[in-house]
Amino acid sequence: MPKNTHDVIVVGAGHNGLTAASYMAKAGLDVVVLEKNDWIGGAAVSRELYPGWKYSNCSYVCSLLRPEIMRDLELYKYGLQIIPYEGSATMMKNGDYYTHYHDHDMTINSIRRHSHKDAEAYERYSRDVLRQCKIIKPLLKMTPPDLTSFKPKDLFGALEFAKHFAAKDELGGLGEKEIYDTIRFYTMSIRDYLEEYFESEITKAHLAGSAIIGTALGPCSPGSAYVLLHHYMGEVDGSVGSWGYARGGMGSITEAMMGCLKDHGGEVKPSSEVTNVITKNGKAIGVATQNGDEYYAKKIVSNLDVRRTFLKITEEKDLPDDFVRSVKNFKIRGSSGKLNIALDGLPDFPCIPEGDPGGGGDMHFTETIEEMEGAYDDWKRGEWSRNPYVDMCIPSKSDPTMAEPGKHYMSVFIQYVPFNLANGGWNEERKQEFGRHIVDCIAEFSPNFKDLINHYEVRTPLELENEVGLTEGNIFQGELTMDQLMFNRPVPGYAQYRTPLKNMYICSSSTHPGGGVMGAPGANAAREVLLDMNVPQKGNYY
Amino acid sequence: MSQDLRYSALKKTPFHSRTSLASRTNKYYNWNGYTVPTEYSTTELEYTAARNGTSVMDLTPMGKYEITGVHAHQFVDYLVTRDLSEMKDNTVAYIIWCNEDGKVIDDGTIFKFSSTKFMLCCAVKIYNWLNDSAFGFDVTITDVTDTIAALAIQGPTSCSTLKKFGAIDLETLKPFEMREYKIDGLDILISRTGFTGDLGYELWTDPKNAETTWDNIEIAGKELKLRPFGMHALEMTRIEAGFIQTNTDFMAAEDSLRPTRMRSPYEIGMGWLVHLNKNSYFVGKKALKKEKEENTTERCLVGLDIDGDKPAHGSVIYNSKKEDIGIVTAALWSPIMKKNIALASLKRPYGIKIKENIFAEIYHPEELEYRKIWARCKVVKRQFFNPERRNKVPADLYE
Lengths: 542, 399
Hints:
The complex is a heterodimer. Chain A contains 17 helices and 20 strands. By secondary structure, chain A is an alpha/beta fold. In chain A, the strands form six sheets. In chain A, strands 1, 2, 11, 12, 13, 14 and 20 form a seven-stranded mixed sheet that branches. A four-stranded antiparallel sheet of chain A has the order 17-18-15-19. In chain A, β8 and β9 (about 240) form a beta hairpin. Chain A is globular and about 70 Å long. The two termini of chain A are about 35 Å apart. The model of chain A has no long low-confidence stretch (mean pLDDT about 95). In chain B, about 20% of the residues lie in helices and about 35% in strands. Chain B has helices spanning about 15-20, 45-50, 70-80, 125-135, 160-165, 210-220, 230-240, 285-295, and strands at about 10, 25-30, 35-40, 55-60, 65-70, 90-100, 105-115, 115-120, 140-145, 150-155, 180-185, 185-190, 200-205, 225-230, 300-305, 315-320, 325-335, 340-345, 360-365, 370-380. Chains A and B meet through α3 and α4 of A and α4 of B.
């Protein structure tokens, strides 16, 4: 028996890899996680790039992480705490603002300032979106059934899936009439969807933001309404659609997972980039790393996106042609950038009155859907948006651990930023030019913003690919469109976390139910591995 | 830190300076986006004022919509299930309205000033529903929730209090009638309506008159056992009166997350408000007609008289075979009737054909332990309390 033999190797110490590893370690397996960077966490990290300030370098807010997973893995015990935030605001060029609050009635009062009709329509809208959340929630922790298979497991699975869409309430579904709404919702553009409820531009623009974050779709693109749902289906302690900060930054999520993993005998090896999967007789038996080490195991679980897993670390000869073609066609386009900023104090945003809880969460300055679509048009031409949609927040307003008292950390997510920048691609100079452009855009709404900046980190899709390993910098590890969701994710026929290569599995966000710091792909994949190994499992997730 | 929350914070009603002064407990709640008292002193005493003297409640947060225009009367008649074609000017009617599937959206009261001007009062927000339904009618819908201050003046001495306040000949006003007054130079509309099931009135005026009005009513009621009255006490009186509360006794069709929770008027005891023989069409008529003809009504909302003295809050109702047949939606030990009463939603034929041998499972908390009580219930008329003085004309006076 060769050295370095384990039950399971997980490739990549992102949140899904660590979730899968923790579940398997808890079930008694000997698990090792190999990570290319010298830090762990993938896109859920907290790094101190400037002394005294902690940055949530990639993902920055938390809502999707499944509460069942937090409970099963006892993440609280290992230091995870979620701080819900109070509101969100869109600032307007005329000095006014639009806000949403944690309190439903305060939100209604606030919307009414812009449109009486919209204030009341918001009730109907919330109910309808909540209905969709109710349908999708049980699906998140299910392995999608294979619709072409006649195995009992798949037949029952298909029935289970279908019942959540079509069946009567008694069976867990909503009813016949609502299935029409679901089909429309999954295929519409967010603009068309919102126009069925709202009249004021600012209401639509504020709500549409969630439908474009991280996606290479515009607000007028069909399918963008689903992306909104994807951002809405999370919860903070039962409050569906709420978002919060992970205390200590997003890295505290993966730190806590690692705590759980180690407590159950698992191991994480940083600076161990997997270069190829070792196969024997058409089966995966181990992996080789950049530093020349080899690891062997009964099962290999990849937390890399589907493109990297099969086009980079697996050899094409080990895979069927049609599968490779599907993987090559998998849509995974980078569209987002980020600035992490160390501030010497709290910037003034004169549009938002001091003390208004609306300023406690995400802030934006895109006032119309047309502006948003314009930003997307720039991306299509291979340029960063001249008038970008930004999702900015100052976690240090709620979290005392990000910076010293009085100092602040600001996270600015930017939509849209191309991976393939026109006229020669990204270089250091153009990256800095992009960073300066975003700083200028924000400064238009905050007179003292520039004076407070100590340091900032600029992240383009290129950095996200090179550093985190997300192909083209796509934060969801693949577009969230109907052709790539559920039984089609990552590719048709392989939605059950197994791959054409025996003993090789995939647990990343490229699989159902998709991206976001959710953990569900990792937990689902772990369940399938454990099933195949006949290891008994228990927990709230199952 | 400054706390200028501009427009987003919960609003204060035009009576807030007075209600907050009257509050000894500082207990407030959020009603339709406004901060209003749940309780001023003790709920029992406030309840007693409504059954013994005069109770005053700030009603301003209730949804109020003005419907004006040449088609106003036709529109209102089209909107609601009740036949309002003969409704007279200066009267009020209790109504419900449904969606096209014949499921109840809300109940409320409609005030007719003339055939071109109405006011609708209700619990849920329906500005959009009214506007959508008004397609094809020449009407204008205005949300007047913020622009009309309202008080409920209820109880046996309420007529005397208001007369002393300046409402001349008020005792001649019949139930569901309204009259415009000019009192100390202020325009005040008084209707003989209310939610307590007792003699009572509601008073409507411009917000700028609110504080003076409150002060003068307080003075007028000084010797007539007047007391401000919070939401908890109102809840007690409305259960005794058998009035239903939207999203408590039934789910508003537009608010139900689960479509199977929507209820038709027949399922919530409101069949008497559905006039299928009304000449014109009304929203939901087709579906309601079908339900009636095919007798497909599944549930009913009934009154229960329950053994023992422990209120059956949230109790599940069982038949003698211990099968689950429904749930209590509101429960109360009635201080005036000394009865343990409840409103319950039951699966038919229970409550309609079968009125005996049904049981409530009551969990009564006793110092950190629950006592499980299996209490026999009798199906009774939902209107538990209905005193003669409620509808008497002329109204009782205490002079």
